[in-house]
């Protein structure tokens, strides 16, 4: 599980930062990549990475502001031309209006896609998606326009089968190891009955990644971020600008760091960096946030981070 | 009058070529820049040029395919943030549907612009726009979707006032030179009557620039291109692919060169170059076209050309 920042800017593209898009790479886990927001030029950014558009199976849109969605029709169209392989359905999750936006753009441009799109317009907070490996929860944030944050929860990994113990107890290897691993009861040829559950190590906690849209501080921020291994939080303003941040429905770097601290997250990534913060000034944003929460990283375009498991 | 190619690719953005956009810079003439097509990422390309978005006063859209329009909402939004100066109205000319596309995108993204947009959906061929310096004509091309080509005609420059002759004839300098220059009749203090028209040199021919959208060969191509100082023609396919070009409603480099030759244009610029033609292969497109029409240039992103006056 890796997170790759495709665009870390705010509002308009700048030379150093494109507008928002984040790729959550779940290739090892489920052979899928998920995109969070698709600002204009996201497909151009993808060209400079190893990401294959056909692997992108789900797109989550936090809100409909232009710097978060104007790259969507172009990305969807270009994805059609990628390789001869049959492309599976792509699911787009987002606030009400995302379907009209995409469908109007594709209809008027007469773009015919080689794959199906399923639209899930979010009307309720809570569980938005689940499969055998992941759950995604959505909750409302406080932006000028309807805006969501997403909490991606990896299901726990079952404990490893304690093969050494089984060998010590002279349990013959073979297909029954698979049953034990699944936690089932097994009768051995010599009459002994073993319960798989007794031979499994500690289950490993799945990871949690929280990706927020643009937002003012609001209780849902903390709820979504609780104990996340990685929290992606906007940082449109600097430490002395909390008033400005409030008026524009955004957050400061310090507010983000305080959330990270309170929610006891593993790592905080700051993004949605205004073009006013370039070079040393953007480093200062990071430095100031670290005085509150040490594990803070200011994300730059194309930065990629592995999401580590919790230590304990 | 200069033409700057902001995107010279076809279909999807590629590393070397962005999707279509062309800037016609009329800064000396009328202090305006006109854009022809606005593919996704056009605003990103503009960031790497000296073009000021607020100078862009008119946008002409050839057709609604995504690689020609998906950069429009983002460009329009970002233009709002450019400087404190009051921005004049921007006019968008294009096929039916362009207004719905832009308005839907701006409405759903809640983009509030600081300037007015006027939409001119083209329903008739012929004169589309004129002011004291320029006329723009539109005519239908033959693409899979409704598509237009544009012929931009600079009005002729009046002849220069022949000051040397006036001095030789002892005509006292002063405000009456202005009247003579405007071709008016003037009575001198000594009673002589002069007709300005007799003291004007040859008028200078205005320039003609023809910018075509994607198209198969069709009679309007030649009509629009006739005697243009510069012709911008798509070249999606190479010399041995006229069948493919026909099936996909596009043209080859050789077809473009033949038009340039028949229409007796000054210069031919090839654009809309497929990503299949990179490096030497794209140079071959140019080389092959030059066997038919010598003054051919294959345009690359950011190439800028001055449009010269006709020689005679
Ligand atoms: Zn926003
Ligand atoms: Zn086209």
From TrEMBL, chains A, B:
The active site is at 67 (proton acceptor). Keywords: Endonuclease, Hydrolase, Metal-binding, Nuclease, tRNA processing, Zinc. Binds 2 Zn(2+) ions. It holds the Pfam family Anti-Pycsar_Apyc1. SUPFAM superfamilies: Metallo-hydrolase/oxidoreductase. Zn(2+) 1 binds at residues 63, 65, 143, 214. One of its GO terms (molecular function) is zinc ion binding. Zn(2+) 2 binds at residues 67-68, 214, 272. Belongs to the RNase Z family. Homodimer. NCBIfam families: PRK00055.1-3, RNase_Z. This is Ribonuclease Z. It comes from Liquorilactobacillus satsumensis DSM 16230 = JCM 12392. The gene is rnz.
